[in-house]
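Thread: Newbie trying to understand structure tokens

Hi all, I'm a second-year student working on a class project, and my supervisor (Dr. K.) asked me to get a predicted structure for one chain before our next meeting. I've only ever worked with sequences, so writing a 3D structure as a token string is new to me. If someone could post the tokens and maybe explain what I'm looking at, I'd be very grateful. Here's the chain:
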Amino acid sequence: MPSTPRTAQPSSPAPAGAAPFVRFQGTVRSPRGHFPGIFALANTLAREGRLSEEQYRFWRSANDWYDAAYPDPSATDPTVYDDALHPGAVAWFKPTATHLLDRIPGYLDLLAAHGVPCVRIESPDPGRIVYEDDVQVVAVPWEPAAVPSCDGGAP
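---
Reply by user tm_fold:
Sure, no problem. This is what the structure looks like when written as tokens:
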């Protein structure tokens, strides 16, 4: 049984050699200065009415699955994404959340069909952890996020 989600205590950098956390995000900053995550990118396409009927069914079904599969950090701690308290905080999958990562390719296909760039980034130390549960962390980057680059490989 998964542990209860909790707001994490401030953390220090992860030890060298730690398994990387994983995040999928856009390459263009949002108006708030953040790189939107994969779910925000897909949700924007749906909200703007840009999805075909088939794409919409996929998006709705996949979002429903993810909503049931893991906790929403902001439901546990409404301040977790508060820019004044946790500037730049973003969610990262834990490397052990393979059941969640296995379903990401459908989102990548959806975004690619609409020309929305998305990159996979990994880090053994995504920043100061402000929330943690069994499958994810929300972290404030140690330094301001740089524009992600692509090496031409698959995200």
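A couple of things are worth pointing out once you decode it. The CA atoms of residues 64 and 100 lie 13 Å apart. Residues 1-14, 149-155 have pLDDT under 50 and may be disordered. Feel free to ask follow-ups in this thread.
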